[in-house]
Amino acid sequence: MKIGKHEFRWSIVVALAILMVYPLSGQKSDLINKNSPGIAKSIPYQWNLGHVYASEGAWRKDFEKLKNCQGKMSSFKNDLVSSPKHLLEGLQYRDQVNLLAQRLQAWAEKRVQKNVNDTTRQYLVNQVSQLIGTLDAEQSFIEPALLVADSQMIQDFIASEPGLVAYKPYLDDLLRFRSHHLSSDAASLIAQEANLLNFSQSMFEAIKKDLEFSPVNDGTGNLVPIAGNYINLLESGDPLVRKDAYISRMNGYFAHKNALGVALASEVNRDLFLARAKGFSSCLDWSLFDEAVPTQVFRNFLGAVNDHVDVLQKWLNIRKSLLGVDSLTLADLYVPLPLPGSKEDIYTYDESLNLANKVLAPLGESYLKIFQNAQSEAWIDVFPSPEKDPWPGSATMIYGVHPYILLNWDSTLFALKTVFHEMGHAVSLKYISEDEPFLYQRWWYCTSEVPSTCNEILLKEYMLANSQDKFRKLVLLQDEIDRAAHLLFNLGLVSEFELAVHTQAEQGEILSLNWCLTTYHQLASKYYGSAISLSPLDDIQGLLDLLDNPWGTCYVRYVYSLGYSASQNFAKRLIANEPEIQKTYRRFIGRGRAHYPIESLKEAGIDFATSAPFEETFKDFGSKVEQFERLLREIQ
Ligand SMILES: [Zn+2]
What's the rounded Cα separation, in Å, for the pair 381 and 48? Predict the structure, then answer.
């Protein structure tokens, strides 16, 4: 059921996995006016779910209402497209049901997040989820019925029934899939073979259960297990500790290399089977068709990243010289660079709100007003507690009410960035709910991280421009460069490997383990050049990256690179106060599913049909590396 619910956990999982978050070493920031009065003395610090339902009793009343919707959708089943009026009634009824379902589910889930140990709260979530499953099944006839209807007739319906005009983007998007629509027999056969089609992921999970890692010395003479300590070990200042931890992990996987090879080949063949069954000539066409992204966008990204691997190598060489290692390995990419003069900044939550007034000023008054309302009107749950969901941050829109933002404020730079990130999502969700009907409330993956990342970039740029402390600037630059290195180059490498293995299968060639390892090795050598000494163990990384696939489909990783590039473009233009940019940006982040993402970006002045946006982003990466080098020379 498309209930328009936004949970961004999956993207945060990815962000946490791919970003390097470095601890800073303790003084208060010189960026915050310590005498500033605070946004409001009466900030609630806890969200108020009473804006949705005043009590569990009120929730139950609506739950009964939703229960009574069961069976009613079937009255449209045999004659949904019998007339424009009947089609409109059917679609409107479905949307009303889904809107109520979204509200019930979101309220129940938010309550669980406040107390994850209270099983009675979880019980409500289970109850409503089960009911939604039933209603979802009852609605499942709608889209197939529309896909087999005469498309000219549907267009005539829209022309003759004014109420259907709001449904035009939805219907047009659906009809776009017509030539790729499976017959009901084929669809049911594929549904029956779900276990077979998910074999690669089941196998990867089974391999992970069998992994054995040798314990390693943590640098103090203690042997510790890899599980639960891996990130800490990789952040050790002792290169030997990092190396041992890395080798122990990779050896664990390498012992299963043949099984991993079979799992990857199976995953790629699954993609190819589904793409061909739906009439696509390649897996890339199939995957990008979903969000109407031209495949040229993906190719432009790979072209641009290939043209700029030298700047990545330059950054890696700086890393190598600061770490003082003879040769840099993949084990050395997570350790914070030793910048002995740097101090750890600590922030208070109220200070972060005052900072937001300055950082987000380029976005204009109306944006800031929403940010302030979020504080004063109890949209945000700020502080951790023993029973609260410990997730660092998420934003959820409850249509017709307002967004709710979960935080677990801990006074670090990461917490500060999280406030800006999640508020970016929240304001965008608020705008989408103002600009588009409930039906279009879901984001496109492709651009979902733009409003959040743009806020983070505005924060970093403000801090860089307003800090006099060169060490702090170095820490901020390193944080941003490493983040960009992952979003642009690491994801570029994985995406290029993804293209290579899918193309190999599409050409009818066998995906042998040896071919996969050799191909990844060649690609990694091209990206890292002589800056990193690759070992044969590293070659398994490509398989692990592709098998770690929470999306269940191919060619998704590049969207993070695209989102970063677009965010940076917007942030620069906002800071430069380009004419009309506030309006342009406001319109863009208010776009939901009624507009395709690449078209909306083009309308906002960012044309991914050309390489220009990516070129600009790589140029910026290069200038950040140069800035880092310059500052380093000044303090040495
Ligand atoms: Zn996000």
Answer: 9
Rounded to the nearest angstrom, the distance between the alpha carbon of 9 and the centre of ligand 1 is 8
Which tokens in the block code for residue 549? 């696939």
Interval between CA 13 and ligand 1 midpoint (Å): 9
Tell me the CA–centroid distance for residue 19 and ligand 1, in Å. 12
Instruction: Give the CATH fold of the 49-179 domain.
Output: Butyryl-CoA Dehydrogenase, subunit A; domain 3 (1.20.140)
pLDDT digits (tens, 9 = 90+) for 375-426: 999 999 999 999 999 999 999 999 999 999 999 999 998 999 999 999 999 9
Q: What is the mean pLDDT of residues 7-31?
A: 33
Distance 441 CA to ligand 1 centre (A): 16
Q: What is the mean pLDDT of residues 517-536?
A: 96
Distance 18 CA to ligand 1 centre (A): 13
- The whole-number pLDDT of residue 345 equals 78
Q: How far is the CA of 511 from the centre of ligand 1 (A)?
A: 35
Residue 99, CA atoms < 13 Å, CB-side half-sphere: 15
C-alpha of residue 505 to centroid of ligand 1, in Å = 33
Helix (H, G, I), strand (E, B) or coil at 141: coil
d(CA 275, CA 344): 50
Q: Is 162 helix (H, G, I), strand (E, B) or coil?
A: helix
What does pTM read for this prediction?
0.90
Q: Which tokens in the block code for residue 581?
A: 């940019």
Which pLDDT band holds residue 23 (cuts at 50, 70, 90)?
Answer: very low
Domain ranges of the chain: 49-179
Kindly state the DSSP code that residue 256 receives in the 8-state scheme.
Answer: T
